[in-house]
Amino acid sequence: MEATSQEVYFMTLERNSSILREGHSTMRPLLFNGTNYSYWRTRMKLFIQANDYEVWRIIINGLSIPIKRVEGVIVPKEESEWDDNDIKKDKLEVTHEGTSRVKESKIILLTFEYELFKAKLEEGINEMSDRFTHIINGLKALRKIYLNKEMVKKMLDSLLKF
């Protein structure tokens, strides 16, 4: 059975539309979907470096409070004194970490999800593990760390409640 020209057109269009999905543009970075972290990390590194190498240097060297030297003493700059690089650092921090209140809210929400974590009847072990890993990675990104033995116990307990 041969495909009609219209079917071929739509199959080609569908195949080619994947080219413009997330991450295949210099304007939209690749979204991390929970799999293949090393590939995502490399793509994000290249994306950030290509868009603004100064931002990449800030990521590598860490964020710092803009400072200046006054009469031989190092003091924080007033916000009105910040230059373009200082503003990029602040914007990067707020964009990726959020304000302290937002950050605290995220920690509370993820901790709540962690504490109540249990296997769902309709999900397989891989889906459950992915969901658990997503919670743990979110907490790690916000610098709330659980010991490995605590996480293993939580995972085993959630299977027993299943």
Question: Could you explain the architecture of this structure?
Answer:
The protein has a domain at 100-160. The protein has helices spanning 5-17, 37-51, 53-61, 84-97, 100-115, 125-141, 148-160; strands at 67-70, 73-76. The protein contains 7 helices and 2 strands. It is extended. The chain has a two-stranded antiparallel ribbon with strand order 1-2.
Based on helices, strands and strand pairing, what is the structural class?
mainly alpha
Helix share, percent: 55-70%
From the N-terminal CA to the C-terminal CA, the straight-line distance is 48 Å
> Averaged pLDDT, please?
75
Radius of gyration: 23 Å
Shape: extended
Following the backbone from N to C, one meets helices and strands in this order, namely: HHHEEHHHH
Strand order in the sheet with the most strands: 1-2
Structure at a glance:
The chain is mainly α and about 160 residues long. Residues about 15-20 have low confidence and may be disordered. It has helices at about 5-15, 35-50, 55-60, 85-95, 100-115, 125-140, 150-160, and strands at about 65-70, 75.
